[in-house]
Amino acid sequence: MTDVVIKVDRLCVRYGANEVLNGVSFEVERGSVYALLGRNGAGKSSLMRCLLGLQKPWSGNVQLFSEDVWGHRARLLDRTGYVPETMDAPPHLRVGDVEAFHGAMYSKWNGSMVKTRLDRARISRSANLSTLSKGQRALFSLALALGSQPELLVLDDPTLGLDVVARNEFFADFIGDLADRNTTVVLTTHDLAGVEGIADHVGILRGTQLVVNDETEKLKVERGGSLEQIFTEATHGGELGL
Amino acid sequence: MNKAWAVALLDLKRMGRTMIVAAVVAGLLPTLVSGFGTGISGMLLFDTNALLGLLMVVVGVAAGLTFGGDFTAGRASFVFARPLSITTLFAGRLLAMIGLAVGTGGIFLLTRQIFGSPEQAGFFLMSHDRTLQLLLMSWSVALFLGLAVSPKRESAAQSHGPRSWVITSLRTMVTLAAFIYGFGYFADFAARTRSSTSLPVRWFFEGWIFACFVASVLGISMGRADFTALRRARSRTMAVALGLCCVIVFGARVYALNIRPTDVDKYYFVNGSRDGQSAYVFSYTDRRGRLTLGQQFALDISSGAARSLNNDPGQGPWQSADGKTIAWSEATPFFIRPLWRSLTGHSNLRAQTENGRIATVSLPRAMPNTFSASEGIFGPISRVVPANDGDLFAIHWETHVTFVSLTRGEISDGDLRRNTVGNAGSAFAPSGAYRVITIGERSGTSPRLNISDIDPASGKVTNLGDIDGTWARMDDRGERAMITSHMTGTGSDLSVVRVAAEGARLEETTLDVQGRTSTGMFLSDGRIATFNASEKVVHLFSAEGRPLMDIPVLAGDAKRLGSEMFPGILAVGLMNNGAPDVALYDTHSGAMVRRLSRVSPFPEFYSHSPAGTPGSRLLRGDDGKLYVLPSLTEQPKQIIAH
To answer: Do B226 and A92 count as a contact with CB atoms less than 8 A apart?
Structure first.
């Protein structure tokens, strides 16, 4: 029997009359790296918000660790790390303040690990958040997410706006951590090349549906070509036979 | 608790510096302002408690706006994507606010103590309850408003189809109607209940602040990082609050304004009818010991039967000289009145004629259909005088007198002087002319009164003359007027002006008395009685103003002239060891003929009833109840209104 960390069942998300997701279902097993792909406005962020219990689905159900995430958000998120698309901490705070806040939030907080990562990224604890570069902010967010020693890591397009060097640095850090632990990862990104070597499962959103949901290698073998080609074909309405 | 402290600490770090600056500035403010001179030393800026209260409001607003701003700025995930419960989040935010309040309050007081002069330095007198209340109220409102700002990142565009447009329009109209109804009816309720406390107003506004708080909590709980859901939950809560408000206000209005005569606790003043058989009584009713409500009734003195007069406060009933016709301004909801009048031409002026029929009196066409601060919320009509024929009504508004007939509609309009500031008296004279005494604008030290006749048929104004004076009372036939002049703190001079006929010269006779009088009245046989409270003496004059007799009021502490209860028998109100008494004096012999304890007469200027009629013999007990004196020898009898 497989250990399912995430179970999304017939998820629908609407904003008034505007339907964003309709009947999206998928599961993510423990230790998997699931890349959720889609064009802008495909509903990736809405799905991410539902995954974290930040948003109530219109209908359907989202479970983390076999529990409804909307109803048990605070407890389930103690086992979940989150890296937002852009830093969501209030501005004009110091790095140390935000780190201390996170330290108080999580039961398995590992301060020394965060310190090591911050030192490696040359981020001073006394630095103001507004003075950090985009790359440093992304690495800081990742350090905070990993500091909670999560069983599940959710990354919402974490490399958006980063240059190649910063992006490589981010993924190197990320991969390093994955190698250390059996962490389940769900990430959305537009950086297909960056995740190609990381993600073992891929989901592609088009319209309001999840049109692709399979193992990365299997997709590559069956359809041929790179992840980018598969993505292009799927998001432009090509028939994948899936 | 650890998590709540972490949330609080973060807020303290975000706002602490700004609040410290605000506290120091507030503490230094009186010292800085005092440099501008002593003229503003009495200003609020010098009051420690006022400044502290203001600072608490600033803290509450800053904390609320910061909290709300996190959602509109798209930072909700910072807390909701972490293992932090909503309860802990609110607890942390409130802890931060209290911490900021304590810190800023302390710094403010310290700054005042160090830099303020000794007389400026105050003490922390605000109660903790009040401080917490101010903080929570300002925080709730600021959080609600903070969440009302459009977010930087909307989750999705709203649909704009025709159906959506219709639904949005309908929703807006219903909301607007409910809003006008709820708030308008409350304003109407507050104005009409004449509440003795500000409790209803406080309840109303605190209720709305509580609704803001609940809406924000529900919005944040239901929406979390989804601003569309947050806004929806917030809007629905406020819609429910608005609906509740409408129901409660309607219920309160029905409860408060439907006072039965048996509910009345105390009578405040009584206006005897011209025929002397009934009285228009203004009563107080205490609802549950916290809310005192006023209500006016038409009371039949012999039977006690009372009918509620649904009139605007202070707007009637106005009686004709023979008492057979009365007019009043019907208490329709005043907030909708101008609109309703514009749409339908509806008049809320009513008249009851001799046969008991209630008719609607048209409003003057030229009268503005708006509220103004000077005219009050119930409109510009200051007085209505019905003629004895039961058909003609003189309606005073601004400087105009408009004559309106029940059968013929508006007849004419007379515009009095532009410099008129008020009416002192008016009556339909036997000649058919409408005689008016107006108060002129005070220029220099010599206040003037003007007497004019207006022809109801044409509206033509004939000036009869000006006299020195500040106030006047005209008799029912418009032939004599008692003029009050040179009013001072201790009393005034009285004179009598006789207007023999239209166009005749005014004959003024000063009533010659030692010292200054407090008040005066015309007796039923034409004589004049004046009263000097400080000298404790009643002066009697002939109809022409010739001194006749002085009656010393020896019993008790004389307070006021009452009515002429029986022909030639005058009531004087007294205070005896803190209790009200009445002494009745024979105005022919000067002898005291009766003394009544624990009752007081109504002031003579309220009485319109002829001497000897039941309406002239009304008394108010020290228990606030209404009594009538059946005869000179019997005990006062309580009137049980039903």
So the answer is: no
Cβ contact (<8 Å) for B158 and A16? yes
Choose among B298, B360, B347, B348: nearest CA to B323. Answer: B298
Q: Which amino acid is at B55?
A: L
Which pair of tokens denotes residue B213?
Answer: 């708080």
Q: Would you state the torsion angle of the CA atoms of residues A129, A131, A134, A138, taken in this order, to the nearest 10 degrees?
A: -30
What is the three-class DSSP state of B192?
Answer: helix
CB pairs under 8 A between A and B: 98
Alpha-carbon distance B9 to nearest alpha carbon in chain A (angstroms) = 8
Do the Cβ atoms of B404 and B391 come closer than 8 Å? no
8 Å CB contact of A18 and B226: no
Rounded Cα distance between B267 and B61, Å, is 46
What span, in angstroms and rounded, lies between the C-alpha atoms of A29 and A45?
A: 21
Strand B493-498, strand B480-485: pairing: antiparallel
Q: Are B572 and B521 in contact (CB under 8 A)?
A: no
Read off the pLDDT of residues B28-79 as tens digits, 9 standing for 90 and up. Answer: 877 777 666 555 445 555 677 788 888 899 999 999 999 999 988 888 899 9
Distances (CA, A) of B635 to B542, B599, B619, B632: 32, 11, 11, 8
CB-CB under 8 Å, B81 with A18: no
Q: Look at residues B553, B506, B507 and name the one whose alpha carbon lies nearest to residue B530.
A: B553
Q: In this structure, how many other beta carbons lie within 10 angstroms of the beta carbon of residue B328?
A: 24
B296-305: string of b/e by CB count within 10 Å (b at 16+)? Answer: bbbbbbeeee
B91 in contact with chain A, both atoms CB, cutoff 8 A = no
> Are B2 and A104 in contact (CB < 8 Å)?
yes
Q: Which of B2, B82, B226 lies closest to A77 in CB terms?
A: B82
Contact A16 B228 (CB under 8 A): yes
Cα-based distances in Å from B87 to A77, B218, B223: 16, 12, 15
Interface of B with A in 148-167 (CB under 8 A): 155-159, 161, 164
pLDDT in tens, A75-95: 999 999 999 988 889 888 999
Task: Provide the CB-side half-sphere exposure for A77 (13 A, CA).
Answer: 27
- The predicted-structure confidence for B146-155, as pLDDT tens digits, reads as follows 998 766 554 4
CB atoms under 10 Å from CB of A66, counted, come to: 11
The closest of B519, B512, B523 to B491, measured between CA atoms, is B519
Q: What type of residue is A218?
A: K
Q: What tokens appear for B240 in the block?
A: 């429910």
Strand bridging mode B392-397 / B381-386:
antiparallel
Would you say B417 and B438 are in contact if contact means Cβ atoms under 8 Å apart? Answer: yes
* Gap from A77 CA to chain B (nearest CA, Å): 5
Contact A189/A159 with Cβ under 8 angstroms?
yes
Structure tokens of B325?
A: 């016709």
Tell me the residue type at B635.
Q
Selected for mutation to probe chain A from B82, B88, B226 (highest A CB count within 10 Å) is: B82
Tell me whether residues A54 and B81 touch, CB distance under 8 A: yes
Contacts of B526 (CB under 8 A, 6+ apart): B542, B543
* Chain Cα centroid distance, residue A86: 12
The interface predicted TM-score of the complex, written ipTM, equals 0.91
Q: Are B409 and B424 in contact (CB under 8 A)?
A: no
Q: Higher confidence at residue B369 or residue B373? A: B369
Residue A231, classified by CB atoms within 10 Å of its CB into exposed (0-12), middle (13-18) or buried (19+), is buried
Burial class of residue A217 in the structure, from the number of CB atoms within 10 Å of its CB (0-12 exposed, 13-18 middle, 19+ buried):
exposed
Tell me what the mean pLDDT of segment A166-176 comes to.
Answer: 76
Give the nearest partner residue to B77 out of A46, A54, A56, using CB atoms: A54
B1/A contact by beta carbon, under 8 A: no
Q: Does A49 sit within 8 Å of B77, measured CB to CB?
A: yes
Q: How close A218 comes to chain B (CA, Å)?
A: 33
